[in-house]
Amino acid sequence: MKRLFLSPLCCLLLLCLGCGTRGASRSLFHMDTFLKLDCYGTNAEAALDACQAEIVRLEALFSATLEGSDISRLNRASGEAVEVDADTAQLLRRAREMSILTGGAFHPAVGSLVDAWGFLTDAPAVPAEAKLQKLLPLPSAQAIQIDGTRITLDSAARLDLGGIAKGYCSERLCNIAREYGIESALFTLGGNVEAVGSRPDGSPWRVGVRDPEDAEGIVGVIELVDRAAVTSGGYQRYFEQDGTRYHHILDPETGYPANSGLRSVTVIAESGTDADALSTAFFVLGMDAAVALMRSAALDCDAVFILSDGSIRCTEDARFTANAGKDCRTISNS
Ligand code: AMP
Ligand code: MG
To answer: Do strands 312-315 and 328-331 pair parallel, antiparallel, or not at all (unpaired)?
Structure first.
């Protein structure tokens, strides 16, 4: 069996060139992902120290694999109540809301399926059909009972917050930077990018949307000011078995990798947490259902869809410019 994991850093390529103002930058590896933190202003170093400490703290709370994390403790609690950190409770609250909003396409209790596929191990493989069917239907979002910081998880449910935790983290980093008086910062956590303000020269941040077919290439650029852009794509993490590719975004209804006609979707929203949960949900739902949800729920977000045939559709206010020659059309989401 061949296993291929592409560097998530390539998911969105940062195109910030020639930023002259005093700044600080750090490249790190956490949450199984390459991170790049860029901060501009007099407090940039101190802000990044605080950001780095926060990343380590949140990873230790949210990881599904680190023993002793809040999520691991909940997964092993056999239905008993567990006291968790305030950030874990807040993230679970948001995850539950997003699950309800998306009709379960974003599903925080997808952990049993992720385990069955072995996506968090060195040897992912297609599980037996009977094993998958035993896990379905997944316990609903109501399986997570939240009473302040006291959480009770149904004994059959297994949490995996891989589809939202990086978005929550980038949102926290932006808030920390703002507390340090930073007016210009960009945080890149794999396929998640979130901006404080604009570039130091006042122009928008420019974030490349990765070409799903070319690890080195981009299909176009999104302009970003005080917003997050989060990409979910089948190319980001996958393995091959008997000539078939299986990626890591699972359809909670079927138990199999989502197959909704998309190569990737990038969601642009004010909140990194929302953008992250929605990008995963939209990838599962496919473009038509995603756009229908944007309209019916009046979601305050935009999206760039790359369809299976390589063509691109972006919503009106996505501030996306495709590379010359790309088949890119604008669609209405309101
Ligand atoms: P993302 O790259 O943000 O779309 O998140 C993908 C990750 O979220 C996977 O690696 C799993 O850990 C988890 N995941 C997979 N499928 C789902 C789903 N339908 N809903 C929520 N999380 C998921
Ligand atoms: Mg996501």
So the answer is: parallel
